[in-house]
Design goal:
Number of helices: 10
Number of strands: 15
CATH class of the largest domain: Alpha Beta
Distance between the termini: 44 Å
Radius of gyration: 20 Å
Order of helices and strands: HEHEEHEHEEHEEHEEEHEEHEEHH
CATH topology of the largest domain: Rossmann fold
Length: 327
């Protein structure tokens, strides 16, 4: 199945990667039917609850595991990679909008796990679109990892995508599948390529979470080279708000989402240590600096109209404070 998806997506690789002129206003009301996948995850669960806080009255959550604290109007448990499971959970439901936030994010050297990453994140989309009808818009949570990050430059949505991880590959394939299906079904597709997300109550695999964990545990923070590599982190609340903004302003296209605040890894480590109140940094200066990982957010700010609100300093205050409470 993975081989089939790879071949099909390569055939679609010349699908549009820009922005179609579909800016006609969308009728919007709070009783529209919204399906949120990945609704038990860190982003998806916050997304569902934020939608309910905003007054939406028909929000359905979908995930492999139930969310016990979800405020969704309905919650369905199903495996995206299993079409029978989806049919049993959703029947032939129809929704005005789909926010596809579900994904297996972690990479592994294990071949079986890598196959599942690609299968769930690609075949899962095909299964979902065969099971439900989406009438108006699809919002897709993608990632910075669709870009060839080892080349160390500022990436724009119009740049070629050459993923260097199975997760990045699976998200790029997912983009291509959804682009093709959106053209067939005349739905608006908004793809948000999120930068590395961090935030309270999370152990997402990025330097911020790792640095906080090490600092609280009294371990050294280890940096390769001189620590001058640049990153642009995205606070989890901004990620959620970006998805909701895209739902409410569905301008079709691909948009990069990050805080637009490049910072050196050494500065991130120092900011965290100053908040923890101790700790140390060890530089492996014999190693080369990792490449910068940055995205151009011009289109997000000036076409989609969304800008992140939480600067890194404020996000770290929230994250460190929450981590202290967990201790």
């Amino acid at each position: 199945m993975v081989d089939f998806v790879l071949c099909a997506s390569l055939m679609l690789s010349k699908s549009y990667c820009g922005h179609r002129d579909l800016r006609m206003p969308v009728s919007f009301n709070l009783d529209r039917g919204i399906l949120v996948t990945g609704a038990s995850g860190r982003i998806g669960s916050r997304l569902v609850n934020k939608l309910k806080e905003k007054g939406y009255t028909s929000v359905t959550g979908l995930d492999l595991h139930p969310a016990h604290d979800s405020r969704a109007d309905a919650f369905r448990v199903a495996d995206l990679s299993n079409s029978e499971s989806l049919t049993e959970a959703l029947g032939r439901s129809s929704f005005d909008s789909l926010i596809h936030a579900a994904a297996i994010t972690a990479d592994s050297d294990d071949r079986e796990h890598s196959d599942r990453v690609v299968t769930v994140n690609t075949v899962g989309i095909l299964n979902l679109l065969r099971t439900v009808t989406v009438r108006e818009s699809v919002i897709f949570r993608s990632t910075i990892e669709v870009y060839p990050l080892s080349k160390g430059r500022v990436w724009s949505p119009s740049d070629p995508c050459e993923p260097e991880s199975f997760y990045g590959l699976s998200k790029r394939l997912g983009e291509l599948i959804l682009q093709f299906c959106s053209m067939l079904n005349d739905t608006r597709l908004v793809i948000l390529r999120l930068g590395p997300v961090y935030g309270s109550n999370d152990d997402l695999p990025n330097a911020v979470s790792s640095f906080v964990s090490k600092a609280i545990g009294g371990e050294e923070i280890v940096l390769y080279g001189d620590g001058s590599s640049l990153r642009d982190y995205l606070y989890i609340d901004d990620a959620v708000d970006a998805l909701i903004w895209a739902l409410e302003h569905p301008i079709p296209g691909i948009f990069n989402v990050s805080a637009n605040q490049p910072v050196q890894l050494s500065q991130v480590a120092e900011m965290i240590l100053s908040r923890i109140g101790g700790g140390s940094i060890r530089y492996l200066r014999e190693s080369s600096n990792p490449p910068d990982k940055l995205m151009d957010t011009y289109l997000t700010r000036h076409v989609l109209g969304y800008s992140c609100k939480v600067p890194l300093s404020q996000g770290l205050d929230r994250l460190v404070g929450h981590s202290d409470r967990k201790e």
